[in-house]
Amino acid sequence: METQYYTLVEKQNFYEIIENKYGEIAVFIDARPGTPIDPVLEFDGKSTALLRRDERLAIRLDDIDEETKNILAEHEVVMIVELSGEVVERVYGVPVENVDSIFILGRQGRADEIIKAKNKAEILESFGVVRSWTGGQNK
After folding, report:
1. Within the chain, how many helices (H) and strands (E) appear?
2. Greater confidence, 23 or 103?
3. Who contacts 84 (Cβ-Cβ below 8 Å, separation ≥6)?
4. I want to staple 11 with a disulfide (CB 3.0 to 4.6 A). Which of 67, 81, 112, 114 is the partner?
5. Cα 3 from Cα 82, distance rounded (Å)
């Protein structure tokens, strides 16, 4: 089992949000490797959404269309459709969480990704610490 000590935030340059005749919303994005684990879509009500796909990967959707903002904010669940070209890789529902703002701390990697290191408590929890020793001098 691989333990991740960071979160990768990828920017989705092109995406499509659609509404069907029943008022359901679907978001089409590029497929990512692996199965999503407890995904959630955070929306700031302005122009940015963040799909937290799992504990390691989040996908940022910028410049959400003006008309789409109210529709997206009103939904409790949206469908995510991951595509490889025209082929559907996976479809899954995610809850929508309306947040005040989306703020991502981290180190800019490529132009389309940000790497966020976990804090000490998160590292210790991920590592599964059972005992700890300290050394050095107290000041």
Report:
1. 2, 10
2. 23
3. 30, 31
4. 112
5. 25
Task: Report the percent of the chain where pLDDT is more than 70.
Answer: 69
77 contacts: CB under 8 Å, gap ≥ 6: 93, 94, 95, 96
pLDDT of residue 40: 94
Which of 75-79, 87-91, 114-118, 128-132 is predicted with the least confidence, judged by mean pLDDT?
114-118
Residue 67 is which amino acid?
E
Q: Which two tokens stand for residue 52?
A: 């937290």
Sign, Cα dihedral of 9, 29, 32, 92: positive
Parallel, antiparallel, or unpaired for β 113-117 and 107-108?
antiparallel
Q: Hey, which residues does 17 pair with through a beta bridge?
A: 27
Encode burial over 21-39: b for 16+ CB neighbours within 10 A, e otherwise.
Answer: eeeebebbbeebeeebeeb
Query: pTM of the prediction?
Result: 0.72
pLDDT, position 58: 87
Residue 91 CA: distances (Å) to CA of 33, 79, 81, 101: 13, 7, 5, 27
Residue 118: what residue type?
A: K
Cβ atoms of 42 and 102 within 8 Å: the answer is: yes
